[in-house]
């Protein structure tokens, strides 16, 4: 089996029971180390959390017509999200020189400066992801079936074997979650408390209360990332995340001419370190923009996902300066 076929085979492991495929989605995690550094220095990695939601159940044949009311059928949160996204996209098409376009351009630059780890964790949809435990609502045979399926649940953590190992991949993911959970918890409550203080800006005519919307959005963003991080951490603690070496990812580092594992020493590093030892070696990038193209193609990434990978590369490069 070729490396690419092997990767696609591991993208989503089948659910152990057919009925459980209807209750939770399939998930896989891909780890791409971006930097190399001797311990105890931190390695910067990009994580792709991919979840395929379960198929929607077919509507009953004799289902009544949807009730009419003021609440949107897709839910208030979903409706509000689509509304905000549509409004923001509309501002990007505003006239040149207008305040809407200037705000849009500033916002896009700000988005590029947000931690790429936050954006990755926000993509973890806890409603469709594999559960961290069996639901307490199930009883009898249905609960026994769910428990048996959950015991067999495995979420692959794909990593490039040429620069990492199974214990390292798990340790780095665990370290990421330990850093991000308290950070997003603090960010959520901070912006939630600041938002009411922006009420005086509501008296400005024509221009909307941008400070309030910014604080509300940052609080929501931190909350989404916090939920995702906690969910992945619970799956990790329960032993459901299993590291899987994927040779197809090695092309990222072969193209970048990286032929030394992360936990070993290269001749250049030894020469630079001199008598000070490995602890004083500085982290360095082990990928390039061109080499990351191999990951984009191997993972069949969409435009938004590819943009996230390049943003992670740019931020990792800036953090090392």
Automatic annotation (TrEMBL):
| Any one biological process term the GO annotation gives | proton transmembrane transport
Q: Where are the transmembrane segments?
A: 188-207
Q: Read off the Pfam families from this record.
A: Mit_KHE1
- Transmembrane as a keyword? yes
Please indicate which superkingdom the organism of origin belongs to. Answer: Eukaryota
| Keywords (A to Z) from UniProt | Membrane, Transmembrane, Transmembrane helix
The answer on whether this UniProt entry bears the keyword Transmembrane helix reads yes
Instruction: From the Swiss-Prot or TrEMBL record, give the protein name.
Output: Mitochondrial K+-H+ exchange-related-domain-containing protein
What does the record give as the organism's lineage? Eukaryota, Fungi, Dikarya, Basidiomycota, Agaricomycotina
